[in-house]
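Hi,

Apologies if this is the wrong queue. I'm a grad student, and the batch job for ABC transporter permease from Streptomyces fildesensis produced an output file that my downstream script rejects. I'm not sure whether the problem is my script or the file. Here is the sequence I used:
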Amino acid sequence: MTAPVPAPGAPYTYAQQYTSPIPVQNTTLAHALKSEWTKIRTVRSTVWTLSVMLVVVIGIGMLVTLAMTNSDYVGAPLLSGGLFGLMLGQLAVITLGVLVVTSEYSTGMIRTTFTACPSRSRVLTAKAIVFFGLSFVTTTAACGITALINSAALSDQKVPSSAYEDSVMRDSIEAGKVVAHGGQWLGATVGAGLFVALLGLLSLAIGTLLRHSAGAITAMMGVVLLPLILALFMFAESMHSLRDFLIKYSALNGLASMYRIPMDGGTSTGWPGLGLLAIITAIAMAGAYAVLAKRDV
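Support response: The file is valid. Your script probably expects a header line. Output copied below for reference.
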């Protein structure tokens, strides 16, 4: 477009009269979501990390199920075999949660992201929604497949009379057979998926706070593994109360409770632990929003 020529002596008003042929549209959260979805699905780290998670969860679950089929009575809830693969597979989701943020800081791409979307809170919200949705769907699908395999392979166990007095198996025996009720299916699939996805979201928050991949991943490994490891070495009787506390509130015990086999010997269904994890994650995300708004890139 050719700008009009101003009259001699008149002020130059080209900027005021020029109209861009490119339509101007206010950006929204939907645009940020589309951008983050494009980024997370096109990088190789996402594909490899989630592929490893699927292989580990389903593969180890099948191996555990195969080992259990060699016994007439396993003595554990029908769907509990899925826990062992998920205990390792969750580490892949945690790693991906950190990389969603820290990979952009390490490459400098975060400057381009904030230039395209100056609202930093919108960027973090979009990252959190896209990552949480992807990790939840993927993890739940893996847990669902493992649960179906366990149910098909182990539902014909012969239950001894002594099993009826076992508090762990009390709700898993019906008409002399090991069964899984609706609550157990929900916990071993949707509940486990939510638990791991929340751990991944917590990792995303820690990554935002630290902005360093190795540091954030190490911190999350400590959060997930350290409480239980420390508890295993607390032999002194004076430390038993602390040991029981660490086991009860460890992330691995929360995940095991979703499969109705809590490590502290209780009868928790895992949902209270999931609620506690959600609160901790919300606090960490609030801190991430505050730091992201104040700190320079």
